[in-house]
Amino acid sequence: MCRLRRIQRKSWQSSCDKDVLLNILGVLTDLLSLGTGRRIHYVISKGGSEALLQALISAARTEPPDPSILLPLLRLLARVGQKDRKFGIKVQKAEATDVILSLTRQNLGHHLNLTHCLWVLRVCASNVAAGTTLGINGAMELLFKVITPYSKQHIRTVRAAIEALAALLKSKSNSRQAVNRGYLGGLLRLYQDWHHNDVSNNYIYIRRGLLLCLKHITNIQLGRETFLGSRGMEILFTSVQDCLSCKNLDPIVTTVTQILRKCYPKEPLPLVTVRSSYSFPLPGNVKTERPCMGSEDDNESDSEEDMEKDLNKDDVEGKEEDYDLETDVNKLRSRPGLDRPEEELGQYEAMCPELSHDFQELDSESEEEKKSEDRSANLPSTSSHFIPSGNSVEDPNHRWRNQSGTEAGSDPQEKDFKASLQSSIKKEKCSRSLISEKREIVEAVQNANSYEEDPAKSHTFSPCPLPKEAPWYKKIFNPECEASIDPSSGVGSETTEIMTDLLEEHQGNIPFHSPHFYIARAKCTKSIPAYRDLAFPDFWGHQPPPHGTPMLDRHYGVQRDKVLDDVRRLIQPGDLIGRTVFDLDEPSHSSPGAPCCLTFFSKFESGNLRKAIQVREFEYDLIMNADVNTNQHHQWFYFEVRGMKLAVPYRFNIINCEKLNSQFNYGMQLVMYSVKEALQGRPRWLRAGHDISYYKNHYRCSAAAGGSLKGKCYYTLTFSIKFPHEDDVCYLAYHYPYTYSAMMSHLDVLEQSRNPKKVYWRQQALCQTLRGNTCPLLTITAMPESKKSDDLEQFYSRPYVFLMARVHPGESNASWVMKGTLEFLVSSDPIADLLRKCFIFKIVPMLNPDGVINGNHRCSLSGDDLNRQWLTPSSQLHPTIYHTKGLLYYLRSIGRAPLVFCDYHGHSQKKNVFLYGCSIKETLWQAGCMVDTAVITEDVGYRTLPKILDKVAPAFVMNSCSFLVEKSRESTARVVVWQEMGVLRSYTMESTYCGCSHGLYKGLQLGTQELEEMGSKFCLALLILHLKSFPCSKKVMAQAALLLDLEEEITITDRAQRCSPNNAETLEICWQ
Ligand SMILES: [Zn+2]
């Protein structure tokens, strides 16, 4: 390096001594050709580029130019310029562009010199401004003189010229000029020529270089139009077919695919409007035409890159996250006032009946217990929450809407419940008689049907639409009756029979699921389209398969194959059908049951197919409905398909997805449910689909269809499926569906199956949703051991845990996790028993029933993302949020803010299960702010629960957790409950839609079993948290020690921490 410096100190640009100059160039060349780039960067930092450029200008001026000086100089310039990010600017400053161009021109006949000139030219052109200047001064014409059709002569020179041209074409003005001068057609011809003649694939870099020129030139609209007009699509599509089988040619295939995708003519979605097919008038004259939320801005740009190359960069966090962090300490530490008058909080006292219950009934009840072993006799009469009677909900405002007193009094469905309750208890206690069970269910269903005789209310549900063209059904169930079914007799009697038959068929061996309860619940569920049909899987039930499913191996080139197949629609339209086979908006336009055509359906709870178009014989484009009252948010899908052939791979394309990327590119599969499989004893959703890919497509939102969303891009999720049976009825979904009716019927089963002597259970109505569905609120804890004041005192003073789920309807995984939590909480597991004695659980298992029912992905009926409304929820538009927050305010006002708050969600971009929490210090630290630890002390207790989960829950990964407070999340439940209620342990729990990258389930996709397990392990973690962090009675500790085999270190270290006065202080500083 010393030598280098010395050499530079000499002002060699003014040296006339040729020998000295040659010497210097030689030494520099030697020095820079060795070692890493560090030396070059050193030269650049010391003004090396400028010096070399000056030397070039001087050398070019001497007449005649001396090649012995020019050659090493050009070589050095190319090398240094490549590493110098400001090289282009320096070239312009030194006014060297003309010199370089004229040198190139002078050396057209001298290939060695020419190649060196072209290298320098290429480096200069990498700066767009310098490239533009070069273009204006004729660089492109010059290069076109050098680029020849296929020839083995002067390959290096031709390559250098092509690469220089590609660099020049990054400038839009050059691209425009090139198109106007007809170069685009020339490039296409050159490419074809090289492609045809380079049969041994010796000159891949030249072919790729020509493609790069085309790729840059088609970044401008004019370029794309000219490309199309020059038959560019046909030429590239046809030529690339020869390259697909050869792995060496991947760079060519990838570049061709990029160009084809970009140039494919943009089209609007085949819809009249992208606005949801369903609208709902909002209360208080709020316009349903809500302003659209900022969509992920993703307009056509120069840098449209193929996603395929990012495939290994899994779980990449957005770099913008840091700018989103809240760095205002005062804001982080402030506690905003109430968002409503304080008097309003009084109404929530009724939602804490456990705090005023005197348990006078305890003794008499236990005596009764002794008399009879049959638990059903002890069902509290007020607990028939299914149709709650007046006194089950103390606040008259919280009664079910449209509920008349007479209905509540003698409800025929109540009988059904008891009938099957008794049967389920029998099942538990002794081997039950299958025949009598069946008779009971049949009777129950007949009762249910007779209840429906009032024509005003009557909508007969069928398990799935079973129209006349359902031969599969008749064959399976009723082969002998096939002829006797009179098609004109109406749907009613047929469906009754079908229902009865189906229920008889049901084995009743799916734990916590009863088809019978499901039907009863579904009848009361209010949807906007007034659904009359049940999806079979929701009704029949789902039993997880015994083994997990590995993530799908992604075959190389899946995406490009699919894209090329899409392009084929344009090039070879011969096999296109283009027939609409399902249309929610115009049912008459659809032609179901056409020969050789699948039949689609989705008018059932959580279904959301809007349109299906048969593209080719075995390929369908599908469009999902937007969230109600919005024109976007499509990602979730759930629909039925029937009439399939066996062993044929059907390709489905969901063409209006919105997210920029998806776990479908990283091993995730969708889920499928086969009715025939279910009837053969395998009732289950399974991960299904192969050749899955997710990519940006050529559909854009038009002004006519989408107004302000004009220009918005859409993405295709494509997958192929081979159905397991011929003429089956199958259901396909984004993720394991979990409907509102499923949740309500599961709550019924749970309540009935609990041991009322041990489990305190209350189900109340938190409020009504906009559509008039009840949002249930659960209270679960242990019954006090006795009426004695000590026991009652212990009961009343238990700390609260507040859990909720499914604010986002598309995140059905959250509901399965919640199902696991609830089943564990009411179970007879001794750990659950102990846990109930430690906490009172307040649970809102589904915060957005209307969204779930109507097949939304993100929003409620108001068109709002409910998890962005927590700062100031509206009682009219966001009642479930308003009242959940009200209840939390109430708990805080009586000094009982929850110890743990957790909101269950699903995550579409990341793997594993993890928590988001809130920490001031971690946020400031991550944002790079100076943190004065003396000023900000913070209880680190928020880290304990995730650390425990990391140990006890196989799907949970601590490293995926984050405790940062982002500005964009300031209105979410987690942040608001942390900030306004002062809950230190306020979390969002995110469960992946895909699978795990760590731990026991590494490489597996999560199924409902793993999700439910997560829910139960969360309970276990809460118990350990309690033992570690809070005072417990000796009795509890002793029981826990027996059950959990607790490690010494956990108890001791955490105790010490808990007792430290410092810690108590931090809490105060933080939250007072
Ligand atoms: Zn969510």
TrEMBL record:
Main location class: cytoplasm
Check the record and name the InterPro entries matching this protein.
ARM-like (IPR011989), ARM-type_fold (IPR016024), CBPC1/4 (IPR033852), Cytosolic_carboxypeptidase (IPR050821), Pepdidase_M14_N (IPR040626), Peptidase_M14 (IPR000834)
Query: What would be one Pfam family of this protein?
Result: TPR_CCP1_N
Protein's UniProt keywords contain Cytoplasm:
yes
Q: Identify its protein family.
A: Belongs to the peptidase M14 family.
* Leading EC class: hydrolase
Q: Which GO BP terms, alphabetically?
A: proteolysis
Entry's localization field: Cytoplasm, Cytosol
- Spell out the Acidic residues composition-biased ranges: 295-308, 317-327
Where do the record's region annotations for Disordered lie? Answer: 285-343, 359-423
GO cellular component, as recorded: cytosol
Name its co-factor(s).
Answer: Zn(2+)
The chain positions of domain Peptidase M14 read 736-1026
Q: Where is the composition biased (Basic and acidic residues)?
A: 328-340
Q: Which SUPFAM superfamilies match?
A: ARM repeat (SSF48371), Zn-dependent exopeptidases (SSF53187)
Q: Which residues form the active site?
A: 990
- On whether Protease is a keyword of this UniProt record, the answer is yes
UniProt biased composition (Polar residues):
378-394
Q: Which UniProt keywords apply?
A: Carboxypeptidase, Cytoplasm, Hydrolase, Metal-binding, Metalloprotease, Protease, Zinc
Q: What is this protein called?
A: tubulin-glutamate carboxypeptidase
| Documented EC number(s) | 3.4.17.24
Q: Which reaction does it catalyse?
A: C-terminal L-alpha-aminoacyl-L-glutamyl-L-glutamyl-[tubulin] + H2O = C-terminal L-alpha-aminoacyl-L-glutamyl-[tubulin] + L-glutamate; (L-glutamyl)(n+1)-gamma-L-glutamyl-L-glutamyl-[protein] + H2O = (L-glutamyl)(n)-gamma-L-glutamyl-L-glutamyl-[protein] + L-glutamate
Instruction: Report a single Gene Ontology molecular function.
Output: zinc ion binding
